[in-house]
Amino acid sequence: MMFKTHLAIGALAGITLFHYYIPEHPFLFAFIFLFASILPDIDTTKSVIGKRLWPVSSFLSIFTRHRGFFHTIWIPLAAFGIGFYFNIGLFAAFTMGYLVHLLSDAMTSEGISLFSPVLKRRTKGFIKTGSALEYVFLVFVCVGIGLQAALSL
Ligand SMILES: [Zn+2]
Prior knowledge:
By secondary structure, the chain is mainly alpha-helical. The chain has one domain. Helices cover 63% and strands 0% of the residues.
């Protein structure tokens, strides 16, 4: 999915979460959540975050392809484990934001291999990245953000 769609879905998920759970540091939690919701695309120099952090994305692309290891369950699972073990709640923000990105990419026709290399099966949806359908989806997500924000007032 496109950067703006990932950001919008991250915002919608974050706002929705805040209806049920207000963390101890809400602004830091929201920042980490949103950052994690765009972070997996650091595995390509062509993404917005990959371009901004090109030394990192260039280095990572030596070892992994786009939608490779950085689009598997292992990174958020490790973050969850570390946060749980050391009792650091902000790791939950990272874990959830990252998972939101993965679930979003799983809705695309390109899909992701969530459990690679253990299971090679690709989880795919029907939205082609950058297509008119994604823009329609983005509009619905933005309406959802507006509705959730209105509910917060
Ligand atoms: Zn991605």
